[in-house]
Amino acid sequence: MTATDTAPAAAPFRLSGRQIVPLLIMPILIVNAVSFIWPTLSLLRMSLNEPIAGGAIRETLTLQTYVSVMTDSFYLELVWNSVYLCSIITAFTLLLSYPIALFIHRADPKWKSLLTLMVISPLLVSAVVRTYGWVIILGDQGLINALLLGSGLVDQPVRLIFNNFGVMVGLVEILMPYMILSLMAGFGRLDPRLEEAAQSLGAKRLTTLYRVTIPLTAPGIALGCLLVFVLSISSFVTPKLLGGGRVFLLATEIYDQSIVLLNWPLAASLSMLVLVIFGAALVVYSRVVKALD
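The chain above was modelled as a monomer; its predicted structure follows.
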């Protein structure tokens, strides 16, 4: 018998739990670093440059662009209008989406998949196409004005687009699927037996909705509001088309400064301001969720 025959077999190579976790996390860290962290740092660096007339940029480190933004009444009003309008859009989206999500949640299982498919089907159509559809519907010669003029309720077309109302209508319709899906994800804590118990004790349907259903689905409401607010304040196509250049929001101003006026440092500064608003929204969301727990 040789020494080779008596040697023990080599143990198979195995990774411990502490070694596997970093390997599993590494791909998403790389993706975030390439697609988010690096572009954000590039925007931050661009915002510290100095713009020169004619679209040129002087590479330097200055906060003058931020000072100009924070001291200019136009940009302060722009930030306020963006947050205010997107908050209203979020509220209307929630009011219209909550009954739909609750109906789908309570629907028969054989219909739930079909109803969910109907909800997400608008996402298969480009937002540009859907926005142009609203231009046709809300325009001076559109369907709504044709019905109003035909019924004799008005003598001249009502301005329904190229204003805040048109932007609100378009964004609410476009963002409703996201809100509905978020609400349905948060309906897992909703126990029908609790609603039945409340009604058996004499609570009316509205009371049950207010005292039982809404508190149990509050995490889904918070998630949907966060998602819709972030998507609305960063939306560009719909405000640009339905606003007609008369509705000024952060996203449209960033486009104008970067593409039209070639003021990249100012556009980068406004982009960083949008990220700050996103961070504030996340802080509010985390505190709300923590309070609900």
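The radius of gyration is 26 Å.
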